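Worked Example 4.2. Consider the chain below.
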Amino acid sequence: MPAFAQVNTHGAQSGGKPPVPIVGGFDKVKVLPPGGPAPRTADGHPDLTGRWYPNPSGRMLQFAYPLEEATIRQFDPKVTPEENVSFKPGIDAKYRKPAPYGECDQAGVPSAALEQISQHAPMELISLPGGKLWQMFEYPMDVRLIHTDGRPHLKDPDPTFNGDSTAHWEGDTLVIDVIGIDERMRVITGAGAGWWPSDKMHVVERLTRTSKNLLTYQITIEDPVVLAKPWKSAPRAWSLAQDPNDYWTEVFCTLNEEPSEIQKQNAARAKDK
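Applying the procedure from the previous section yields the following structure tokens:
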């Protein structure tokens, strides 16, 4: 007989034994209802302000937890399939090289949002009067200011990891246009593809608060040097934090500060095998 008992997602052990409690109550996690209409700011647009999780359930979740699939996934691939990334034939190897400094993820556009399909970190949005939206990610630690008044891009923006962003409203959807992204910003889609962009990369983000509890985030990436055609994510679900005591934590990854550090770690891993 095995020395362990298999526990199903309802906390009942196989063999007919009485149910056991699941720490954290993850067996009780459910997809949130809409919760009513989205609140609106004084100018009539949906108020995007809130702490948002990359799932439809309103709390921090991990795949290791005993969960129903629908409670953690950002989209149903049978309903809204997401295409694979299509690279140009024979692109220079520099665009597909591995990350040089280990496993720490880099903050920036578009990866900070897209990679949460596997990292599961929350996003904080703060809408302010005067056409400003602050966007912050708990991991990787990233702070970004987005102007929502439709102002034009800078004529010659200095490349940055978050790029130069300008946004405008199309109905209830905030459309964010991003250029000037630093070529050292490795693109991570969370869908098994990762690459380094050219200086021609152009990103369009679409944020729609469909109800009080639910937000969709869809990203399109164009790069005529690297991609054979634009890549468009599925509309990915985010949900409003439901715990009034939910708070921001600090997740700080330091393992990629120096190339020599990862070399030491790789040597230690090889020795342990």
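Residues 83 and 159 are 28 Å apart (CA to CA). Helices lie at 111-114, 116-119, 259-272. Compare this with Example 4.1 before moving on.
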